[in-house]
């Protein structure tokens, strides 16, 4: 029989090993179902690790061959309480090995880091979750409430063949779940020598990918022509790309800024909010993008020959919309684009927002503080999107909490989808201890 200390150490060792092994399974999500092939192997690996210690595992495909997902439930002490979902995605974005110092699918453990695509997004959290789930089963730990572990496909392409499909077609898998934790939060930002704030994601901007289309009269490029689709579209795209949407401090962003002021004394001047947010260091990259809606043109298509004026021109724009701003954003959009431009949503995933309070938040804070005394937790808004977009539509409160204690100078957010993605081994060991405490007290 192992002592608790032994099993704590074992879980931390396992989390590091599992993360490395998961990285070695190339689960690149190209965005094209035909060329996205690795999720099946990763799901089989995860299912095997859970079954090995005695879990009843549900493995299923989400809408297409090979888009594999794994669910397992651990019964808690109080079945009357809603279950907590702990979810992670198994896919990763592509990586070009020629740009990397180590092969992106090597899972190398060297220089104090686990290296490879997925190291922070998010095979680290998958490894930590698996390690804690395995420990609980081996040690006979009964958590206070049911825990549902979910390992999902297709997050990196928006989840249509992953979380969104499961929510639409298999809501039974989420039965009884009232709250959820997943990416992107729980990592530390160093505010002073020995003062760290751990971010907890409580909101996400909406994702709205939009196609613009302008129709005109086709004609010969050599002649006078006052109804050119390319000219009209280009003007509309330029107007939109140069437009700055109004500064809006949502409740969630206000909660983050207030916490920062309290912890650091830094004031966030309303007249120069972007400037004062920049003082937060690398994390300003995320926070700055949560101060207003954005609309970035990303694709243009028109024409087929130099001397033919085409009758149609199209563009794609990546819009990110703050919670509560949807209607105002669309009104502003229509004003900028004008009557000649048709628009349609290619992808439209509304924003997500909850509040930074309640026993679950207290449990996260307590678990962090037990491992990092004096640390604080702070709520924040993610400028991107996660599987929480789909999961929250079931009425589930979603948080981003994948705990990592990071070195002060480590530019964590730059590693998401970045070159030389890596996670400190110590951070994964720390995160495993925090997750373990959290899930015992949730
Ligand atoms: Zn991710």
**What about the largest sheet?**
6 strands, mixed
Number of helices: 12
Structural class: alpha+beta
Shape: globular
**Count of extended strands:** 19
Beta-sheet strand percentage? 15-25%
How much helix, percentage-wise, in residues?
25-40%
Which residues sit in consecutive blocks of at least 5 with pLDDT less than 50? none
Radius of gyration: 23 Å
Multimeric organization: single chain
Instruction: List the bound ligands.
Output: zinc ion
Q: For the terminal residues, how far apart are their CA atoms?
A: 26 Å
Strand order of the largest sheet: 1-2-6-3-7-18
Mean pLDDT: 95
Description:
Helix content is 33%, strand content 25%. The model has no long low-confidence stretch (mean pLDDT 95). The chain is α+β, with helices and mostly antiparallel strands and 442 residues long. It has helices at 4-24, 39-52, 123-139, 163-169, 229-242, 251-264, 273-278, 284-288, 326-337, 359-371, 388-391, 425-441; strands spanning 57-61, 68-74, 83-89, 109-110, 113-115, 147-152, 177-182, 188-192, 195-204, 206-215, 219-220, 294-302, 308-309, 312-321, 341-349, 352-353, 376-382, 397-400, 422-424. It is built from 12 helices and 19 strands. The strands form 5 sheets. Strands 1-2-6-3-7-18 form a 6-stranded mixed beta sheet, covered by helices on one side. Strands 8, 9, 16 and 17 form a 4-stranded mixed beta sheet that branches. It starts with a helix and ends with a helix. The site of zinc ion (ZN) has 5 residues, from loops. Zinc ion binds at residues 89, 121-122, 155, 183.
